[in-house]
Amino acid sequence: xxxxxxxxxxxxxxxxxxxxxxYCDTFGGCVLNATIDMYANCTIELLEDQDGITFVGxxxxxxxxxxxxxxxxxEGDLQLHKAIYNRIVRDFNDNKPLPVKVYTHSDxxxxxxxGSSSTMVVTILSAYxxxxxxxxxxxxxxxxxxxxxxxxxxxxxGKQDQYATTxxxxxxxxxxxxxxxxxxxxxxxxxxxxxxxxxxVLFFTGVSRSSADIxxxxxxxxxxxxxxxxxxxxxxxxxxxxxxxCLLKSNIDGMADLLKEAWNAKKSTSNSxxxxxxxxxEDKVISAGAKSIKISGAGGGGFMxxxxxxxxxxxxxKALREFDGHIQPFRFTNEGTQSWTV
Length: 342
Fold this sequence. Notes:
The protein is α+β, with helices and mostly antiparallel strands. The chain has two domains: 2-187, 2-Layer Sandwich (Ribosomal Protein S5, domain 2); 190-327, Alpha-Beta Plaits. The chain has eleven helices and twelve strands. The strands form two sheets. Strands 1, 2, 3, 4, 5, 6, 7 and 12 form an eight-stranded mixed sheet that branches. It has a four-stranded antiparallel sheet with strand order 9-10-8-11.
């Protein structure tokens, strides 16, 4: 039996960081994000028992194989693949081992700022959901993905990515204590999406980074006696509400202005979010006609979002080509994670 799945990566438009604990547990968080036509992909093949268990991370050129067993130690490469297998076997297969071969690849590298790790967890879960015909709905898949990453694997991070890729489209998400999440899908008219796509440029800075270090720094700063990072996080949250309003009212120029404010507020939550390289790119593209920029995700590298008047788009793209990295064409998508049997 063969199943496949794919899950879209996301752009964090506003509010990123407010989905982190303990901030969202204490103050409540909110995030505006949207999925794009870049994907994490998975194929699962159900094998004969004697074939054991195999995981193949095709894009990162990592392979793991072991004899058939109920629990795989979380060490070495492909820990997320192992952790997902362990959860599926324990919680949904009566602790009976599964002879599977799991192939995965992503359209974006780890550390891209597009939620690639969480998206990969969701897409593998979706494939198992299809393979075993499990009764997991969207909230179930997203919550389970979060638990596997943050609890089972003890990886630092927030909650938005798992829900963004599971639901798909434009969403305004709210985060509360005890892990409660509410996803509010936004109905955005096609002409608004068209204008948004015409004014946005996505640029990979050429630098992948570990989000965990930046996230840990944010958590420490917003929990410290220094009020400045905490006030900056409050500002990030407030701007997310304003950004949602601009989006719904087709005020793209207002979104561009708010992105600048959000970027400045985000930088105040941790010194690791911006770098000299990012600031150099920012100076160049603003001089070429860009309205505002923001790093997608935790910061430090990965993908950069730019708002640009289409009249100056060619000039800005020319300025970007002076740097290592690449401009990434994209379109927004409405669909979340999908799985099917071959």
